[in-house]
Amino acid sequence: MRIEISGLTKVYKGKGRALDDLDLVVPTGMFGLLGANGAGKTTLMRILAGLLRPTAGTVRVGEHDGTARAGRLAVQQILGYLPQDLGVYPDLTAREFLDYIALLKGIDDRAARRRRVGELLEVVALTGDADRRLRGYSGGMRRRVGIAQALLADPRLLIVDEPTAGLDPEERIRFRTLLSQLAGQRTVLLSTHIVDDVAQTCRELAVLASGRLVFRGTVGDLTRQADGRVWTVVTAGPAPTTGTVVSALPHDDGMRYRVVGDSPPAFDASPAAPNLEDGYLALAQKA
Amino acid sequence: MIATARYEMAMMLRKRSMWITNAVIVLLLVLLNVSGWGDALRDPDARNTVASTVFLMNLMLPVGYGSLLADRLIRDSRLGVAPILDATPASPTGRLAGKYLGTCAAAAVPLAVILFGFAAVYSVTAGRPVALAWAALAYAVVVLPAVLFVGAFALTVPLVMPAPLFRVLFVGYWFWGNGISPAVMPTTTQSVLSPAGVYSNQELVGLRDFTLAGPVPGATLNFLRPEATPATAWLSVGVLLAVAALALGVAQTLRTRTTR
């Protein structure tokens, strides 16, 4: 399912432009959305999920006009949405909460609903805790409930906003794999701060900054933004001041810094092969 | 709507504070007039005994459940559940109606326990099982309209002001609009707009201990106090339900505006 976004603008009263004349095409499959806080990712996701109306512009999701009421409803029938600030009802158990959302998503057949809820509890490894009230769940467990509810109606469009926040490394990897497996004939839009999540799951991605599209291409294209701009340097002295320090690791002779910048941070710095995070930082520096 | 009603009711019924609040108010009502209750349980006039009990219940208990219902609509946003619910294809109007009916149904459960519990005990002590039938009538025409009226405002008003402020104002309103005598100051007490339900209690259930419904000589707002008849009693029920529907309409409009 292809998403076509054209001239999309969202202005919040008193807060300025969250999206500014955004044009973007999202193809079927897994698609990453990167950007700093306030870049407009969440606003874009909320518009696509039908939670916000754009100030201007058009959104087409498959054959549906996402800016019209009927179109929004049609999109919501094929949508799985995991918001960034996910909440649950503390008075319900995970099984009840999922059952409730399944009913709202139109899974009316009781047996089918129970089966689907059971399957998804298994997928997110919560079967053993399914009949405990959500009040006692940890942040990571609630996140997993959120993931399960997004998958309830076997959605053709899956919008996930910071899905791995709060998950432990094992859960994160498991969920990333699950998203990739789901992608097949679906469109999965993954918004995240965690560049590695995009690197591990997406072939194509977009980068937003201040509500505008600053990059659209493949993971390789973005990585190449940092070609010739990544350096490592070992020093016992202060950290490099030119460029952006990506990492600092203890080393026998002091600290080993990885730096993204136009010029070497020190005379003895060595060039290094870029990765996606370097490419993202290089792009941010250019922007 | 049914799904929302079902789960909202379940969540509200699990709220321990709802049961505690009702229990405390009932305990206060009992303790304030221990000997009076003893007499009431032996009173052979089942109809008037039930009506008097419902009058007291409806004067005091709405303060509790009105305050408890105040967070039900706004909490979806506070808890962060609203985006998930709003992203489903379920109609927002249906969900609002379900939330309203579910929470009101839950609020009505303890009231049923109290009223039918009293009627059952009374049936035995006074040997008048007909009290159960009068209790059913009183529940339908006095208690439920009050729950639906209070529930609509408790869901709607906190959309425009903080819930704690609503609770304070609601308690003030309740005793001004239902308790204070119209001879003292302009008030909706004893009018068709009073959710305490004096018209329906007096004319449909049969409250005879004291006459409350109808015009009060010298009082302002007497146009809201027509002569008490069964017709004006039904009019009062209708007015309360219509005002409740209006309040819910406002709630729906306010919620729609936040999606822009």
TrEMBL record, chain A:
It holds the Pfam family ABC_tran. CDD domains: ABC_drug_resistance_like. GO terms for molecular function: ATP binding. InterPro entries: AAA+_ATPase (IPR003593), ABC_transporter-like_ATP-bd (IPR003439), ABC_transporter-like_CS (IPR017871), P-loop_NTPase (IPR027417). Keywords: ATP-binding, Nucleotide-binding, Transport. Belongs to the ABC transporter superfamily. This is ABC transporter ATP-binding protein.
